[in-house]
Amino acid sequence: MDTMRERFTASVSRLLDADPRLAVVLAEISADGFREAARRHPDRVINVGIREQLLVGAGAGLALTGMRPVMHTFASFLVERPFEQVKLDFGHQGVGGVLVSAGGSYDWPAGGFTHMAPGDVALLDTLDGWTVHVPGHADEAETLLRQAAAGHDKVYVRLSLQANAAPRPVTGPGFLTVREGRDGVVVAVGPMLDNVLAAVEGLDVTVLYATTVRPFDGAALRAAADRASLPGGASDVVLVEPYLAGTSSAAAGDALSDRPHRVLGLGTARRELRRYGTMDEHLTAHGLDPHSLRARIADFLTRLTRTSGAETGTGPGSGSGTNAGAGAGTEAGVPTGARSGAGAGGTRTEAAAAG
Question: Is residue 28 part of a domain?
Answer without folding.
Answer: yes
